[in-house]
Amino acid sequence: MVKTIVKTAAVAGLAAVLAAGTATAATADPASPGALSAGERLFPGLGNGGYDARDYDVSFDYRPGVTTMDASVTMRAVATQSLSSFGLDSAVAQIRSVEVDGQAAQFTVKGEKLVVTPARPLRAGHAFTVRITYVADRAKSPQSPASTPLPPELAEVIGVWQNTPDGFAVMGQTDREHAVFPSDDVPGDPATYTLRITTPADVQGVGSGTLVGKHRSGDRVTSVFRVGRPTATDVVQVAAGHFTEVDQAGPNGLPIRSYVTKAAKPSALDTTRQTPELIAWLEQRLGRPYPYASAGTLGVDRVYGGGVALETAAIPTYSAEALAHPEEVSTMVHELTHEYFGDAVPVRHWDDMWLSEGHATFYQDLYDSEHGGQPFDEKAKSGYAENNQILKQNGPVARQTYAAGVLFGTDLGGKLTLYALRNLVGQPVFDRIERTFFDRFQGRPAATQDYVDVAEQVSGRDLSGFFHDWLYGTTTPAMPGHPDWRA
Ligand SMILES: [Zn+2]
Fold this sequence. Notes:
Elements lengths: L10 H16 L5 E2 L17 E11 L6 E12 L3 E7 L4 E7 L2 E2 L1 E5 L2 E5 L9 E11 L14 H7 L2 E4 L2 E4 L20 E10 L3 E4 L2 E8 L2 E12 L6 E4 L1 E7 L5 E7 L4 H7 L2 H12 L11 E3 L16 E3 H4 L4 H13 L13 H17 L5 H19 L10 H4 L2 H15 L1 H15 L6 H12 L4 H9 L15
Parallel strand pairs: 1-4, 2-12, 18-19, 19-20
Antiparallel strand pairs: 2-3, 3-9, 4-8, 5-6, 5-9, 7-8, 10-11, 12-15, 13-16, 14-15, 17-18
Helix pairs in contact: 4-6, 6-7, 7-10, 8-10, 10-11, 10-13, 11-12
């Protein structure tokens, strides 16, 4: 049953716990409650303190015709302070039970927070396991408390649960994955994942990562996927449906398995089959192998998320309708770039989202320009002319005014920042900055200042003023190399 009494700390108390950091907290005695916020400026209630999530093992039992699914998640984490209780973000339909290290734990649910009180406090540095059984309901896609409420008909279209005629998929970005599984749902706490989707034998389960097992029990099949490198919660995909599987090999034998709904037009399969060559182009451009153990393209039978694509880990998600158009390869390059920047290198905070979107848009435009699209400089110039309007609407690139700006507001400004940097330091130095940044931060979250630090170290220049103007300014700076351009 869901209990409704919860202990809450005053906001100032939460801030103090956050500010205390691990050094002080590690010696704190007696144990205290973990913070119920990670201090995200645009998402104040999101995330949790006092532990570091390392791995999630999530199971869903999908049955056609009903929207509810029995589900469970086991989170492995390490306490970063002595904990009397701790929070997880949760917007699932019903929590059934919670165990910590195999023992029943007390829990309360209030709003989108599940607060767990273990039978005994957890010592700082202690690795612990939380197992939660729950019910997920795909008919319920709660809207983000951080965003302006949407009209119900629109909220349904872009909600976290994407119900399709033949199954479902999810769209967790930015702060909705915790309607799929309780978690520390912030990009700054990436983890690895095992995803188990049980379906009738004639339905395929699909998840982020690499298919590592298929187990049949009677007329039910469990498909098991593994994401083996630390990745943020918001890009975890789980889906079910009737798919055509496309098996291919990428560079150096990279396994590529795509799933496209059987309802798709044949041209959607043609577009999907270009996945290996797009990855090869990116590997060559970025000078680094594709970061996950496998790759793929997921095309679902629905206008996914109201018509967006999402960089879900190791298998970006698209509407099959969009994939039916050959020009969707441009979007595929965008999402595949996110596998490097955004997925393999998660952003530290949502204010750092330009690091993800800027790179994705930069390499997308570069790919287009080399494949018959608009010349790179020409596209940058037209973007430059529009940028003041975008800044006025959404706020500075690395300090968006609205939570929704995280989804779309930083693409152009982030790309122009990278374009300006490339013009300033030259292509060879820019390429070294990109590779150094990727090498240093793959598998752990990177903040804006981390990129600035790498750029300064590699170029040997003081770039603080440059980045400040491009990322925190309210008007577009002069473009290096193009003094004649007008914003
Ligand atoms: Zn993007």
